[in-house]
Design brief:
There is one protein chain. The chain has seven helices and four strands. A two-stranded antiparallel ribbon has the order 1-2. A two-stranded antiparallel sheet has the order 3-4. It is mainly alpha-helical. A hairpin with a 2-residue loop joins strand 3 and strand 4. Helix 3 crosses helix 4. The chain has a domain of 138 residues: Arc Repressor Mutant, subunit A, CATH 1.10.10.10.
Amino acid sequence: MSISARRMGDEQPDPDDGSAVLDLDAWLPYRCSVVANRVSACLQGMYGERFQLSVPGWRVMAVLGRHAPLSAKDVGERTAMDQVQVTRAVNQMASVNLISRRVDPSDRRRVVLRLSRRGQDAYAEIVPVAQRIEREILGILKPVEVEQLSSLMEKVRSRAEDVLPEGVDWRSFMDDALRGEPGTSPPPRVVSRPVAVKEPARAAGVKASRRRPAAARPSRSLA
């Protein structure tokens, strides 16, 4: 059972229809996004003003600052960004000299990304601010709670990678009874039955036999 799933209660206009209601304040993705958006809004004021860096650009920088060199595909996998977002972020970073692109000497078909010298300097300034914001948020928790939260979040992150791989179809999360077009009844179950298929010539002969007696039907030679 989802922690955000509940049924309509007495406060709803029609509590007996059984409709599912999303308790948004208890829905984990929403709660995480609220925290992430607040952090991004604050941090972007720093790196946007000082380094002309976008939010997707900071995500790319944060990954490269820890795991470079990486290809654009690798960056996308580590940030859960699609390739269009990664490409735009990389191009924007390159326009302000925060990133370098080089052909991989071991595989000349592969382009690898690294932070430029200016990108490394920017990273070195942003990280302490990001870490201070994190400490302030977690300051309400005891050290043991911080460790528990970190362990639980790692489990959630890993699970999200498993159940939400790139290209996953949203239809795979629909209940069997709800499959079909939105707003319509579920499609009926189709039961396969053997169907006799008549050949055209045979069908024509049958049709002709209805117009004349069998004795008067012209013979058809198979020779």
